[in-house]
Batch of 3 targets.
Target 1
Amino acid sequence: MKYMLLCYTVPDEVPTPGTPEQAAEAEEWFAFTNAVAQAGALVNSDPLQGAETATTIRLRDGETTITDGPYLETKEVLGGYYVLDVDNIDVALEWAAKIPLVRYGSVEVRPLLDLPGS
Amino acid sequence: MRDGSGVGEIFRDRWPRLISVLVRDFGDLDLAEEAAQEAFLEAAARWGEDGQPRSPEAWLVTTARRKAIDRIRRNKLATEHLKTLADAAERLPATASIDEDGPTPELVDEQLVVLLGCCHPALSHEAQVALTLRIVGGLSTEQIARAFLVSPSTMGRRLSRAKSKIRSARIPFSAPDQSTLVTRIGAVRHVIYLIFSEGHASTVSTQLVRGDLCDEAVWLAELLAKLVPDEAEVRGLAALVLLIDARRASRVIDGAEVLLADQDRALWDRPVIERGLAHLGAAHAQRSLGPFQLQAAIASLHATAPTFEETDWSTIVGLYDALLRREPSSVVALNRAVAVSYATGAEAGLALVEALSEDEGMANYPYFHSTRAELLARSDRLPEAVNAFETAMGSCTNEAQMQHLKRRHRCLISCHHSEIPYSEMRETP
């Protein structure tokens, strides 16, 4: 079963680039991605650029509005995702617990909808 | 189910086992439930006439499996999902292997697996409670709805949302890793404790005690203790619910709550107390102390004190200290203050209570105000005590507790007018 692990980060809490903390965390991300890939669980994954680069678009009553920023202004912002193919939610949660940002952000685990014929 | 067939007694005992086997075999909670229900209905009809089979358990498993396969076949054209189930059903072990006499020992673990599945952390606490009562306790949706004073359709939706999440997010009903087992058992304890708390002092009902929920929680706690007998906190939980539940008959008289000090100890259920003490002993033997054991130890001192006055208050204060060190909480601190008031004096207890008044949740907690009121009265500060009782009544939502508060309020007003110091008077009920 496929699950998307939505990684919500807290920009204020992310280690500053150039610090040993940041280097250590980068190492952890690398190790995590390697481990899921080697376990044959990784479908794909991408990090996102910061929420300050986000643009949101809506169409209401025939009128398009484009606004600067993410859909919701919150402390936690979507920072990236993994799609894993694993047996059940326990396995997905076990992987999710190893994502470095769970210490300051959070990871939402959502099963993908299996569309018939896809 | 009470009838001549003996199905009623067997139902209680076998329902969770039967569900466990079916969930394991078919991987579908709804199907397991429906098949188990049909098997029990057939048992009620058949055993009354033909008498009980040699091994009722094996009979139920075989019958329920057949019912489940029938159901799958009937729906076969429906979806791919059901086809997979049907394939799984065909691969089942031959029924001969389970037609042996006596219960199969491996089933015990299956019951734990179902309990753990119902209390899976990916489900909300509300859903965990409802599922545990339905799937493990075998209560009907209507019974659970009545226990929580919601409509059967609301409870039905809650249950079906939970089951649908189990299916669509694939929440497994299988033994978790050894590394997470302890945490997962903790979740089951929490659910049982929630059921007991709601039964013991109902927040939603006009009745103070919901006996149905207390019975259910006691049964679940003892079931869990049977499944994991070496878990100290599981034993602690069983001890706690038994020791508190043993006082049930004395807690409400004529629709009014009766506090521990005034309870008729002759009404306490001694055999239930003995069962609780046995679990507490077994817990202590594991040498791994925890909050449930500490609370159970406090309850055991109350349960074994010959009178309220002879209660070992200083040991109780020590146990509350240990509990607070592990789990700091205003409610525990409030209970500790009461123990201090009997061990040391009303003023000492009152000072501790006053120190909690700014804590979160205390302003709307009727027990905080009624405790403060009693301590003010025992310190001969009657006008303030009367005021505190009025504040308590303002936040009280339970009818039996309200009756008690009103009675105490009236009593204090008459004491105040008689100008005899309250501390020199004995209350006459």
Target 2
Amino acid sequence: MDYTKTGSDLTVRLIRDFNLLTARRLAPMTEDVTTVRIDLTNAKIVDSEAVRLLHTMIRSGKRVTLIHPPRILTEVIDILGLDAILDITAMTESDAPPTHLPPSGRKSDE
Amino acid sequence: MDALLRLKCKASVIGSASDFAYKWSLNVGLDESEATRLALAVDEVITDVVLYAFPNEECEFEVVFRSDLATAEVVIRELGEPFDPDRHHYDRERAINYGNFHGAGFELVRHLVDDFVFLNKGKAGKEFRLVKRIEANGGASSEPADIIPVSNPRYQTATVDDPPESYTLHDVTAEDAEDISKLIYRTYGYSYANEDMYHPKRIELGYQRGEKFGVMVRSRNREAIGCFSVLRAPDSAIGEVAEVAVSPGHRRKGHMTRMLGALVARARREHLRGLFGEAVAVHDISQRVNQKFGFRSTALILAAFPITRYKQLVEAFPQDMSAVVEFVLFEPIEARAVYLPIKYKQILRKIYEHQGVEIEELHATRFDPAPKTQLDVDIAYHNNNAVVVVRRFGRDFQDSITQTARSLHESGISAIYVDLPLDNPCVDKGVKVLESLSYLFAGLMPLFHGEKDYLRMQLISPALDLGLIVTYSPLAAELKKRIESEIRWTTRKQEAI
């Protein structure tokens, strides 16, 4: 994934699905930030491990924003009955273009 | 099988496997949203295997992808530590209040696929089966979507006086798919059990892929009035005669006999080693025609077709329908070296004799099973039954077969058929184990898997009234009698307990 950290703000752009592997890599990066923007344009799937991480971030008071979440995420949230705490519509940046990370702050863990 | 992935137990394989599942799903006919659901279900099960099944990353597990015209099935097999998904329930309140998502993955899987079956095969391992139905229009629908509109299925019931010689018979091509679908509808309404037959595209695909061949009869005005097919077995050079229909107004003119004769001739030309039919045992029409072409009874399969699949028969027939299995083997018929289980020696000899097969009876000198049993399970989800093929007898055979049957029953499978290889010296021991578990004799399945002969035994729940089963040949009647006596014996044994 590509990411940029500015102060207490983290922006990440996933290059594949949001699953166990991605969640394991993302979790440590979120520890000392207060806002997290996640660009899911390239993610076809967001699984229960990813939802667990989103839930953890929100419970700990972080502001989480999603960009272009896949349609299946809403279904996952419905099945797990988490719509009250994970409101995907409210969390989604509407009409956001795909994230362009500034070259200076851009990093990659790949 | 379409594909087999053997994967290391690492988190890095999850994305690759779900990507493959997605692309494969699209290729077998699921639309994008259904392919995404199946890929997510695969992701969830594999995540669970990676996280919990094994102590280290060097262990391996398998993912099998297989499909037919109506079903996409992914099987995840692993030999990790014992586990039962039914004991790991997701609790929404626990997730919201404590961040504990235990069981969330399987909760998703249950909602994302049409069938989710967990098979615990004891020491032989565990299987997670994920099944999606392939709809012709890509969406969920209780009625076939691309059904050809015909005003009234009985509009052809007036008898047509055309003489038999005015009809023509030809090999089916993919272009005949629409006519076949119409014919099935006119003949059976919506009561035909195999829903594929109401979807011209599926029929067309079956012929294009070479999964079957068939013949069709047309009247003098080119109307399709009869069809009959041979479905090639996936792992043996034999075929099943099936998908037969003769339009009601054109019956009693020998069309079925003529079509079967053409299919037998084509099967010989294509070097198949034999054909078999599963004749529904609520009447003897199919059995009589089969016998005319040298088919001989080999087995009686109880509850082969759930009555609920035959909408027009539900009220007339009170129980699931059984089938008489009949085989014709083509020359040259090779002699077989087989271990005949003591209990079924006489009846198996007789079945072989009727098939014209010479047998060399082998005698096991000692019971020497492998350390672990290997079972392949083929579930017919529409028919609520499963065939368990014993690939290898292990010391854990009883445990494996018991666990597998329990898992299948818990998944709603009501009839289990176990195929035991007759070239294996452990087959007698296998029969004794199955007998102790109340399995009944079914019969012989010649050349049925990998061109080897198998003894079939069966476990049916609930019990059937065998008096309602119609047989035609004396051998089929003998098979029925044999099974009846086993049922009586088993019932007495259970009452005594």
Target 3
Amino acid sequence: MDSILLLAQIPDSGNSAIITFVFYIGIVLFLAWLSSRITSEGSFLSEYFLGGRKLGVWAFALTFAATSASGGSFIGFPSLVYTHGWSVGLWIASYMLMPLVALGLLAKRLNQLARKTDAITVPDLLHSRFESPLFGLIATVLIVFFLTFNLVAQFKGGSVILQTLLRDVPLFQQAVEVFASGLIASNLLPAGVDPAYVLCLIVFSLAVILYTTYGGFRAVVWTDVLQGVVMVGGIILLLPMTLGAVGGLSSATRQIATQIPPVRTSVQLQVTEPSDARTLLKNSLIVVDSDRGERVFRLLANAKVEVSGSVVAAVPPESSDPAQDSSAIAVLELFINSTDIHHEQLRRDVELVEEVGPETAYAFGAGQAGVYATLPGPSPSSNAGFLPFSIAVSFFCFWCFASAGQPSNMIRCMAFENSTTLARAIFTVSVYFSLIYFPIVIIFCCARTLLPGWEADADRIMPEVVRTVTGIYGVPWLAGLLVAAPFAAVMSTMDSFLLMISSSVVRDIYGRWINTNPTEKRTKTLTYLTTFTVGVAAMIASINPPTFLQDIIVFTGAGFATSFLVPVGLALYWRRFNHYGAIAGMLVGFFSNILLYAIGTYLNGGEIAAYQPLKLSPFLVGCISSLVAAVLVCILTPPPSQAIVVKFFYRKRRLSAR
Amino acid sequence: MRISLRTFTMSIIAEQDVDPASGDAVELDPVFVHAKREAVIVLVVFTLFMLVSLGVSYSLAPPSGKAQAAVDLVLGMPHWVFWGIFLPWMFANVVTAWFCFVTIKRDDLTEPDGGDERPESLASDAGQSSAGGANH
């Protein structure tokens, strides 16, 4: 998530960004207010947490789609496409079936049984199916555990996007000054924390907390619909603009097929002509003549020009290596001609004094033209390339089945109105994802020719492409709207997670263990209070969040799927399945994921990483382990009561002939 | 016939049993039966698409060292992307449409005692657009 910090400044769109944001938040709050006016005859909890189980096609489809797409879909994924080329198309390809698998596998039975048992949460349903309070409690604890991590990551992501949107707006800068002086005076600002970030965090978080607390599930769904439309609208606008800017897809692909992965190195540079420009900003492009011909470099850090004309690092490196002094500038050498760069300024007033090195080439694909247009795709770190076959199999399974195993998706499956709604929603989400994910692959493959050499700062590529194409077409005001897509994606995920934690606390902990028969008034008060408190607690935790947040999001997604997919799937379809097997499946899935990440992190020197036995992802290993444990333990233990089997799998025989 | 352990442990699906608690005759819930059948179809479709998409992509993609010379475009994308990803993706939407509008049963999910293919969904369909013709 640190990458989000690098989201582009959009110099031409400062005012449009703040107008977009204010307008957007205004609509979201209005929708929340409007949704709260809708009354229903159902109980408060069912209404607040499931919208009265009456979601129609568009609401169900778009809330599912918007919740599934977090900030990663619009920040991390474009960065991945840009870095590895067309191979990422296969990495994401199972999204072609994701709605069919994620909804077609469990949704109908989840919805039916949730109605039958009056379940409002996933633990609620599991508690009824297995008549085991212990199992319900384990499920609740796992949900709260994973969601708390994830919520902090999402809060930070949203705040950073807002900060980058507003950083050039004078009004915002003044507000930050006042806010910072107030914090410093009251000694409330932790060391090393950017006051602008804290201000954005408070504004952004309070907006989400307020509309989620006030409107509940219905407000979340309605705002998800708006956010889903913003996301697909942004991509649909960006696709033809990008294709036009690069002269068509064929032209872009042919150019990509000639590209060679860049090499990272260090060089000493000297300015050749006197100039007033005393600084060279990070990501500046420099063209130098050398005995090897023309060479193109992109600066990897800010630099300054000394009186002698030497270019030195603006911030001296921390390395103790004498070769890495401040005159050695870290650069990325791009193996392209300067004539291939059309939309960025080139500095030609610099000469190469000496190449200091060391050179760091890609582990796979170095020096190979065409590697971006084939499989397995170039990789800076893996000798096997970006997508060897085993990883491709893992990801093909991961996107579909991990989505089916997310409790946030299961909750939505409990809320649609009827099976006709389900059928139409599956198709709607299918078309929706087709309009988002494959076009993103095309757009950011084209970005390789539109803005070459952004590999070292690839997380900025989405807003950079937006800034460039809106500039080309003379519509800078559109940039604010297009950059609202990742903002919408983060928001729609945050509100859902916030509500899930709240429902777990109110229904599965308070309602099961503390007060099994609370009054409606008490339930209401507790629900509002819990949603608000959980939101504020997550906001406070996000003031100084841990690093590696993007990895934490992946870790929690896999953790949810390995813990819940097998137990819930078997609970819905296997009559013999009992609570012993369910607990074993859940715990084995949970701990196998934790163990693989612990080993991977240890081997990776403390940075979060997953250990992949036989090159299989922790998700696959976790699900297989969970399945084996669940089935074995179930067979070795007594079957469930006959009353449970009849309740969940049978109905009274109809005497009338069919 | 009473519900016995055999019912649970063996793959024999008893269509008609007796609830030992109430003595009522019971039958398998049709929502359960339909949902299970649909889940099996989903798994088969997923497996077929995975084999086709990965198989076609890896067999058509040129080796990394020769990709520049071998780049062969269809609709502007490398031909392995077209045949292995784009075309299956479009076809997946067709299969999803078939699943949604032809295969999936319009069960009543609100019935407390198990659903059925009943007119609720037809009525619901009639009240909405005709895009999702129910299958009964």
